[in-house]
Write a structure and sequence with these properties.
Length: 317
Amino acid sequence: MVARTIPAVFAVLAMTLFGVPAAAAEDPGPPLAAPEAAMDAAVTCTPDIEDAKANPVLLVHGTGSTPRESWSWNYERALPALGVPVCAVALPERALISVPVANEYLVHAIRHVHDLSGRKVSLLGHSQGGTHILWSLRFWPDLPGKVDDVVALSGDFHGTVIGNLVCAGPCTAISWQARIGSNLLTRMTRDPLPPGPSYTTVQTVFDEVVTPAPQAGRLDGAANFTVQDFCPGRLADHVTMLADDVAWQIAADALTHDGPAVASRIKARCWKPFLPNVNLLGLADAIPTVGSALGGILGLTQPKLPAEPELPDYTRP
């Protein structure tokens, strides 16, 4: 309670002494409707989160997945080896529900990890995880100041042809929102990137999910790369980007330097397929993601809707 009261006291003092509106001190943005206990339980961190000297990295999984399926066998092993504390957030219902609904868990997670570590947070997302990261920074004004780096692996920022094909008729909320030209993605990418964090995107030209590749995963104002920029013809696809060594080199460069990744610093090892400390047996943990994602996208486990869900009021000017 005391920690929450202190910012309010400073806001009142600012308004009294300098005529600054209290809301200008730190606008928390839209209130979160999800139960706080559930949002707390969705965040897990390595034990060194409070003591590490490096900014923590918060991992954000993609459609149909969980933190274990996406991260336990790759980045949750490679980042701690660099002395980087790691957290992960479990988006509700495997991120198969409407983005603004699930996104509240990420908003809460960013604040929680920032408070827990006392440091800025870096965000690394795969696939729909990149969408959630940009959505959070776009509409919650207090978050960009809490974030250092943003790295998106095969992020979906401009929609995928799959969404347009699936939504030729009624389809699920997440499929509507993943379409090229969807209201959600159009609104999310309409304005310049929120200032503060540095932005790096990493794609593969052989992405079979976020298509057309690599255009669908690029962001104006970000440092945009493909693994084929460094290793022409490299056979990385949407799933193997989670363990690809060149993608790792780009991500690690961004996370361990000021600003986004820089091509001249990246020492691509084209002969090396996987990132350090990978557990290839753990790849089996990711198998359920495929069935879960297909079931959710095709409407086997999620309701079909006749049209894209209305955008929340907070997205309107």
